[in-house]
Specification:
50% of the residues lie in helices and 11% in strands. By secondary structure, the protein is of the alpha+beta class. The protein has a five-stranded mixed β-sheet with strand order 3-5-4-6-7, sandwiched between helices. Strands 15, 16, 17 and 18 form a four-stranded antiparallel β-sheet that branches. Strand 19, helix 24 and strand 20 form a beta-alpha-beta unit. Helix 9 packs parallel to helix 11, helix 19 packs antiparallel against helix 20 and helix 21 runs parallel beside helix 23. It is globular. It starts with a strand and ends in a 6-residue tail after the last helix.
Length: 704
């Protein structure tokens, strides 16, 4: 802050002043002279022959906040950065293309990565050094940011040629990383190998690995589909154990619902408290599918509560879904979510406190260790010690009685928590993450027959189409009325994925028509006709170092994996072999990588099970509102049939009847609504009975 002539405080802004990204706005008053990614910064770096200090993060990133407080808000540190570098700040959620390029550079240089991401670049954007979080001062043998900047200052002045040579070598490695080499189709045997690897890494508390725990929904979906394909009960057991531990753990917001990002312990208790839209979408999908597969009510309940959280707290008035909620409030991680024993006992009755404190592991000294000091500070994370039925037995209560008591307690604590300072909400709307949430809502609406889910999904689609779609092209980000950044692979792929699912929820073929238009744009601007596979950026983008092309799953499924699934579904729904041919090209492009390290590509392998079959197309010849039509559709929605896609052949749907040639021959038999079941080998005899339809779709390996 500076003083004006009138003595009033005036805000000092850097070059981020006019940005809309919540993350960039958070840094717009730093004394670091941040520039947004763009030509102005690049030109200045070249004119002054200064390296670029690239800092990548996102608005709900706890360690980004810590580094900002320690260094970027510190005037001494800022002056030093400004002297040595041209500082550039990037929101990784707004520009995932920049983030993934330089995150890969960090992984090449250090074998690790994360956020905040700190990368030092030459003026022509080539990386020569990378890392993640740095404290201001060097501590315990680890270099601090101040020492790092001073070292680079000396090296740039005296050994610039060596830094440039290193940058060229790292850039060459990045270009190799971004390419693919076409191989053969992926062999079926890789599925069992992947299952074995996941089985061996499965932890006694659910999930994979024995340290930090991420939901890893891609792995869980693979296992669920593998169980459906093979009947191996161990695969289903791993999925259920993981979901049950997470639902009881601190990773689940026991009062307000929704999942936190990950936990820092193997038991799912100590979360990193941020909440991401994509996690809610993916968790909705897996819990919905597991409910469909098992019929267990607890999974339905979890889906209902996740969606309640999304519609209550993460949905904009215009229908788009917000991106995230912060881990911090009042500058303290988890402050909004943690409780002291005294706080709980002031709100609850002695009877309620006695049961709640024991069931949720509430302790006087706290059950939460401060991440900085590793000491207990009297704060508690709410998590269940055991399944509810065991807790009910312990207190000699009926399960329904205990559930009713806990719901009454939850409401009391929830309303008390609402008085607290809420974590910051990142209110930008991202096309790709909205596509995932649309998919989740569409799928849940089919299984649970909840029209409010369809309405929310359709409203989000309308928002994307009206605000983030122009002249046949998608855009990536909407924030504060501003649309920015041309769409990436994930924007197209995730929206297509959602539209296909929403078509099957509504049987409105205009959704399928838009999915087809988006897919054509994807093929035209993103597909590599030489080596196969989709690039992450379109062919016109020129402000990135390399165009990446990968199928590796991160915290969200890879765009290439979902494109593979989309193409298989479009091929089946529209009976168009060209889509299948493209899917096979895509598979061949990534086959060598997937064969080498299959657990990094489990969403792609879930698609492989669809390609290997048996997979079915069901065409229902009838009118949407006919009771007999709905009876057949009910079979497809209520039963776990991940190998099935279906469409409605209605005489009133002229577009789809013209698009799919065989529809002219698939008509109601003897005036009765009829289901036609086909796969690659041919078609079964048409059926008009729902029981017969289910029987034919659940037979294994039967010749048609």
């Amino acid at each position: 802050m500076v003083q004006s002539r009138e003595g009033k405080s005036e805000k000092h802004y850097n070059h981020l002043k006019d940005e809309k990204s919540p993350y960039l706005i958070q840094h717009s008053q730093n004394p670091v002279d941040w520039y947004p990614w763009g030509d102005e910064a690049f030109k200045k770096a070249k004119e002054e022959n200064k390296p670029i200090f690239l800092s990548v993060g996102y608005s709900t990133c706890h360690w980004c906040h810590v580094m900002a407080r320690e260094s970027f808000e510190d005037h001494e540190m800022a002056q030093l950065i400004n002297e040595v570098f041209i500082p550039v700040k990037v929101d990784r959620e707004e520009r995932p293309d920049i983030d993934c390029t330089y995150l890969a550079a960090c992984q090449i240089i250090t074998s690790t990565g994360g956020w905040p991401l700190t990368v030092l670049l030459t003026p022509d954007l080539k990386p020569f050094f990378a890392g993640t979080y740095y404290p201001k001062e060097s501590v315990g043998g680890g270099i601090g940011l101040k020492e790092l900047v001073l070292n680079v200052k000396e090296l740039w002045q005296n050994q610039e040629d060596e830094l440039l040579k290193s940058a060229d070598e790292i850039t060459a490695a990045l270009k190799r990383w971004a390419s693919t080499a076409s191989g053969e189709l992926i062999p079926e045997s890789v599925l069992e190998r992947t299952f074995d690897i996941l089985s061996n890494s499965f932890d006694e508390y659910g999930g994979f690995g024995h340290g930090q725990k991420f939901p890893s929904v891609n792995h869980l979906l693979f296992l669920l589909h593998y169980w459906n394909r093979t009947g191996d009960e161990n695969a289903l057991s791993m999925v259920e154990e993981t979901l049950n531990f997470m639902r009881r753990g601190g990773i689940w917001d026991q009062l307000g619902f929704g999942f936190h990002r990950y936990t820092m312990d193997p038991e799912w208790i100590i979360p990193h408290f941020e909440k991401m839209l994509y996690d809610q979408a993916l968790m909705t999908i897996i819990y919905t599918e597991v409910y469909q597969a098992t019929g267990k009510e607890e999974y339905r309940e979890t889906v209902k509560l996740i969606i309640e959280y999304i519609l209550r707290d993460m949905t904009s008035p215009n229908g788009g879904f917000y991106s995230a909620e912060d881990a911090e409030s009042r500058g303290l991680e988890g402050e909004f979510y943690l409780w002291t024993k005294n706080e709980v006992e002031r709100i609850l009755t002695p009877h309620e406190s006695r049961i709640f404190n024991k069931a949720y592991n509430i302790k006087e000294k706290g059950n939460y260790q401060d991440p900085g000091t590793q000491l207990f500070n009297g704060k508690n994370i709410l998590h269940l010690n055991a399944p509810l039925n065991l807790i009910a037995d312990e207190f000699e209560l009926d399960l329904s009685e205990l559930s009713k008591l806990f719901e009454s307690i939850r409401k009391k604590l929830y309303h008390a928590r609402e008085i607290r300072v809420r974590p910051h909400k990142d209110d930008k709307i991202l096309t790709d993450w909205n596509g995932l949430m649309i998919t989740a809502l569409a799928r849940a609406s089919q299984i649970f027959d909840d029209k409010s889910y369809i309405e929310a999904a359709l409203k989000a689609v309308e928002f994307i189409k009206s605000q983030l779609y122009c002249e046949g092209k998608l855009w990536h980000r909407y924030c504060g009325g501003e649309v920015k950044v041309p769409g990436f692979l994930d924007d197209y792929t995730f929206m297509i994925y959602g539209l296909i699912e929403l078509y099957q929820a509504t049987l409105d073929s205009s959704l399928l028509e838009w999915a087809l238009e988006l897919n054509q744009e994807l093929m035209d601007d993103f597909f590599d006709d030489t080596d196969g596979g989709f690039y992450f950026t379109n062919r016109l983008e020129d402000d990135i170092l390399v165009r990446k092309k990968e199928a590796f799953d991160g915290s969200i499924p890879s765009g290439n994996a979902l494109s593979y699934i989309n193409l298989l579904h479009l091929s089946t729904l529209l009976e168009d072999s060209e889509f299948n041919d493209r899917a096979l090209e895509l598979e061949k492009a990534f086959a060598p990588l997937i064969n080498g390290s299959p657990t990094g590509y489990t969403m792609f392998l879930t698609g492989l099970m669809l390609r290997l079959g048996p997979s079915y197309e069901v065409v229902i010849a009838g009118e949407k509102n006919d009771e007999a039509t709905q009876e057949l559709i009910k079979v497809l929605r209520e039963n776990y049939l991940p190998q099935v896609v279906f469409s409605l052949n209605s005489v009133s749907d002229k577009w789809l009847r013209e698009k799919v040639g065989s529809f002219q021959d698939k008509n109601p038999l003897n005036g009765r609504v009829t289901a036609y079941i086909c796969e690659s080998k041919g078609c079964k005899l048409p059926v008009t009975n729902s029981d017969k339809l289910l029987e034919l779709l659940t037979l294994k390996n039967v010749e048609l």
